[in-house]
Amino acid sequence: MKWDRAPTPAGPEAAAGAIDPDALAPSGWGRFREVAWHLPRMLSGLGPLGPRGPEDGPPVLVIPGFLGTDRTTMDLRRALARAGWRAHPWLLGINMGAKKDTLTLLCKRLRGLEDPRKVLVVGWSLGGMFARQLAHRCPDKVRGVVTLASPFSGDLKTNTNVREIYERVAGHDVNRPPFPMKPGKPPVPTLALWGRRDGIVAPSAARGLAHEVDKAVEIDTHHMGFAVYRPALSRVVAEIRTFLTEAEGKPPELQPMAVAAPISSARVIADSIASESQP
Questions:
Q1: Residue whose C-alpha is closest to residue 130's, from 121, 120, 139, 118
Q2: Which residues contact 80 (CB under 8 A, 6 or more apart)?
Q3: 133 lies in a domain?
């Protein structure tokens, strides 16, 4: 299977050989770096896989990226939960690529949350592409879509450096998924978060064009950082809040979870002495 490294430029720019560097997929070294960068953070995926956050918090469904699982997005869901969201896993195992029943199962997952409110859908990498299609399929149940380093724009053959791996694992050409793909922006508020340091996806592919998203914001992190790097996750959560405030005209109703500060042993001793000295 032949892999064209970059699309052939057309028009006047072709003669000069000018290609927008943001449209080029990172090199294979970038892919290796992303995997190596993620390895020491794999233990962060340990813990119960159920919903996280306040039971009455607004619902959010998190979809993992290609070859990712709910373990991979554990830190992302924790960050959303700390901010006051009720964060739900997708519960469909390893994301092995698009399958004939992927969108049907995701629509069923939305209904299974049994929450009368619309659900914010956050998708990392390939999960973001699923999130966009899910919003096309079930717009009445989706509050908005947030894509994290998702290659939804441009040439799918050349906008990532994992196309060949994807086609081998998923068993289909990237341009011929087993279900119809609706083009264009989903009929719900859509936010694209992207990173110039992404080692897998071309920046312009995750940023999108003006008619494909409502807003695009750059986050200073790697591809894997969108799922496991806590400083980046804090920024992701903040950008989601800002975007929904702009889109809906008011901030989302969130009650951030309080984090208890550890009490020092010196303070415990001091309080004990003070209480004993009182008459």
A1: 121
A2: 52, 53, 60, 62, 87, 122, 237, 240
A3: yes
On the CB side of 112, how many CA atoms lie within 13 Å of its CA? 13
Q: Starting at the edge strand that comes first in sequence, how are the strands of the sheet with 59-63 ordered?
A: 86-88, 59-63, 119-124, 142-148, 190-194, 215-218
- pLDDT by 10-residue block (mean), the chain, 279 residues: 36 50 69 56 63 96 96 95 97 97 96 94 98 97 98 95 95 95 95 95 96 97 91 96 98 79 39 44
**5 occurs within a structural domain:** no
Structural domains in the chain (count):
1
The domain in which residue 71 lies consists of 20-277
pTM: 0.83
What per-residue confidence (pLDDT) applies to 248? 97
Distance (Å, whole) CA 146 – CA 100? 23
Q: Does residue 15 sit within a domain? A: no
**What is the CATH classification number for the domain harbouring 132?**
3.40.50.1820
Nearest CA to 127 out of 76, 161, 168 is that of: 76
pLDDT of 37:
53
